[in-house]
TrEMBL record:
Residues 578-639 form the FlgD/Vpr Ig-like domain. Keywords: Signal. Residues 2-101, 103-210, 214-324 form the SbsA Ig-like domain. It comes from marine metagenome. Pfam families: Big_5, FlgD_ig. This is FlgD Ig-like domain-containing protein.
């Protein structure tokens, strides 16, 4: 009674100090002894546990054998009724005991946030919940050491945290000291823990991603408090990231006007008519007043919390008030059209200033980004009251995007400015120059039975792409090397082809015997391709000769094991392609070309041939030596009982 840690596969024995029988003096046996026994889960009212009981030949030991292993960590109730007696009619009193099986069930754990969860608040805690009380595997209490919290993955930067553990030792609450970070991939694990029965929990990890919690900001130009702003100025609202309507719909030149307030004096002033537009990245609004602003007036511009980023973070309501320049001797900068040109180019914009007093005008210019260099190339008076300046705009190499350009005109007393937008359109730049490194130029390779299983490796120095695009390296071979099918690779510095594959495509049709030597010679190179450009190596192409000589092979050791028709190469082709095939034994061979409608075009081979590796050339002509048109063609090999058909494409 009250035993703990009993094995789940245990039998239960009831042992008497003398032989027993039923109280009706009948004998106990394996058929009637079951009825004396009660076996239940937990207590006398619990669920029955199926069993079979037996009694030994001396009628002194009853063995109870549960039908299945007992459950792990289970309280078991077993009893025998007072319905047995000894040979002197002395009946026993009813007896019951309760014992507990050993806990062999490994604990389970749930981590919240769950694995692969997204949009988790950066201020969230991580909760680790166990199915039962836990401890460390050295039997000490749970603490911080059992938790891992990192950025990105197992090799990432640690995220500082504290932990709290509930009194039941079943829940660990992980509190990041400085939060989890915005749009951050978070990796967390629990390890080195076990239950009170020494059942260890395997390391359990999850990875989740936090939400974008950064509220977009807006910068206004002219800025709040600006003075002497030109009456013909445009107003720019620049957002820190792409924005959209609160209902997730996109912004456009039609609906953006309704988001903006433009008034004289303040928010309760008179409306100023305007038209607003939004740029294609949805990051800058341009407000163009319908007519020149009044001189020496306060202008109030505002946008409410009416736009949001893609994560639903709404911009804070923002406003600015600036003052236009006074009338009179004020220089006036004429409207400047927005301009654009392509990346890696420069441009010139003409600016006209009128000054009714005829003052000399000094020009200056600035950009809102250091990536665009600006300067006043020249300025001259074109009349007593008009000046013309040429503004040079030179973006940095490979830069593209948008910039607000501000032109200033100073008559010695007042300085006015006017803005316009420069758009630099991206272009696709070629990958950088690179060099071939291996095999060296004029290399000679030999395929023999000793090198047949080797691999030919082509190597080069890495090229780089200015836009960071993936670079695909493509092998090209000329003359004899054109038959090599070397795979293209991405962002790598080598590619490979097996000697066996080279051997398979070498033309051996002119050899009198399979053991004769053959070779191919030609030029090879690698092209670095990204976008619309493919750049050749600066030191290529290289020349290479490949020889095959398998003189040490005996008999038909290297003869094909089976008939096979290979894909032609090159494919598509113009005007000649090679068709390789294998003959496992001597046979009459026909190789025939058909058009897509099944009409015979050319019989390339029609003769008896011995076993071996074979190749045939089709020059894109029919049986009458006429060139056929571009299209899909079929070629069929018939050798003995072997028939195989493949497709190829002729592109003229």
């Amino acid at each position: 009674n009250n035993t703990f840690g009993v094995a789940v596969e245990s039998d239960i024995t009831i042992t008497f100090d003398e032989a027993i029988r039923n109280v009706d003096d009948s004998a106990l046996d394996n058929d009637n002894v079951d009825g004396l026994i009660t076996l239940k889960k937990n207590n006398a009212a619990g669920d029955d546990i199926p069993f079979d009981a037996t009694i030994d030949s001396d009628k002194k030991v009853i063995t109870i054998n549960p039908t299945n292993n007992l459950d792990s960590d289970l309280s078991v109730y077993v009893a025998i009724a007072g319905s047995v007696e000894d040979d002197s009619d002395n009946a026993i009193q009813p007896v019951d005991i309760t014992f507990n099986t050993v806990d062999t069930q490994a604990p389970t754990v749930a981590i919240d946030p769950a694995d692969a969860a997204t949009g988790i608040s950066p201020s969230s805690n991580v909760t680790i919940s166990f199915s039962e009380p836990m401890r460390k595997t050295d039997d000490s209490a749970l603490d911080n050491s059992v938790v891992t919290l990192k950025k990105d993955d197992a090799n990432g930067e640690d995220i500082a945290f504290t932990t709290s553990i509930d009194a039941a030792q079943k829940v660990i609450t992980v509190t990041p000291t400085g939060g989890l970070g915005d749009q951050q991939t978070v990796y967390t694990c629990v390890s080195g823990v076990e239950d009170n029965a020494n059942n260890a929990l395997a390391q359990t990890c999850v990875t989740f991603t936090t939400a974008d919690a950064n509220v977009p900001t807006v910068t206004m130009d002219p800025k709040d408090g600006a003075v002497n702003v030109g009456v013909n100025t445009k107003i720019y609202l620049k957002f820190s990231e792409k924005v959209q309507n609160l209902d997730d719909s996109g912004l456009n030149d039609t609906n953006v006007d309704g988001l903006i307030t433009l008034k004289y004096d303040d928010a309760t002033g008179s409306d100023i008519a305007f038209d607003a537009t939004i740029d294609s990245p949805d990051k800058m609004m341009t407000i163009t007043p319908a007519s020149s602003l009044d001189f020496e007036k306060n202008v109030y511009v505002a946008i409410g919390a009416t736009v949001e980023d893609a994560s639903g973070n709404a911009v804070s309501a923002t406003s600015a008030t600036f003052t236009t320049i006074a009338a009179g001797n004020t220089p006036v900068i004429s409207a400047i059209n927005d301009t654009s040109f392509s990346e890696d180019r420069s441009g010139t914009v003409n600016v006209i200033v009128t000054d009714s007093n005829g003052d000399n005008i000094t020009f200056s210019v600035s950009a809102d980004t250091s990536a665009v260099k600006t300067k006043v190339e020249e300025s001259n008076s074109t009349s007593a009251t008009e000046w013309l300046a040429k503004i040079n705009l030179k973006p940095e190499k490979n830069w593209n995007g948008e910039s607000v350009i501000t032109v200033y005109a100073d008559d010695g007393t007042l300085k006015v400015n006017r803005n316009f937008k420069l758009t630099v359109n991206p272009v696709d730049d070629a990958p950088s120059l690179f060099e071939l490194t291996d095999p060296i130029n004029n290399a000679v390779l030999k395929i023999t039975d000793q090198t047949y299983n080797d691999t030919l490796v082509f190597k080069w120095e890495a090229s780089t792409d200015p836009e960071g695009d993936t670079i695909t390296y493509k092998f090209s071979g000329r003359w004899g090397l054109s038959v090599l099918e070397v795979p293209s690779v991405k962002n790598a510095t080598e590619t490979k082809i097996a000697y066996a594959d080279i051997y398979a495509v070498m033309d051996q049709s002119a050899l009198s015997h399979w053991s004769d030597e053959s070779e191919i010679t030609g030029e090879w190179g690698i092209g670095a391709c990204a976008g619309m450009y493919c750049v050749p190596p600066v030191n290529g192409p290289f020349t290479m000769t490949i020889k095959e000589n398998v003189l040490s092979l005996d008999g038909d050791k290297q003869l094909p094991a089976a008939f096979n028709l290979q894909q032609n190469y090159p494919n598509p082709f113009n005007p000649v392609t090679s068709i390789n095939y294998q003959l496992a034994s001597d046979a009459h061979v026909t190789l025939t070309i058909y058009d897509i409608m099944g009409q015979k075009i050319r019989t390339v081979v029609n003769e008896e041939q011995s076993a071996g590796f074979r190749a045939a050339i089709w020059d894109g002509k029919d049986n009458y030596n006429n060139s056929v048109s571009s299209g899909v063609y079929l070629y069929r090999l018939h050798a003995g009982n072997y028939i195989q058909t493949r497709k190829m494409i002729l592109m003229r």
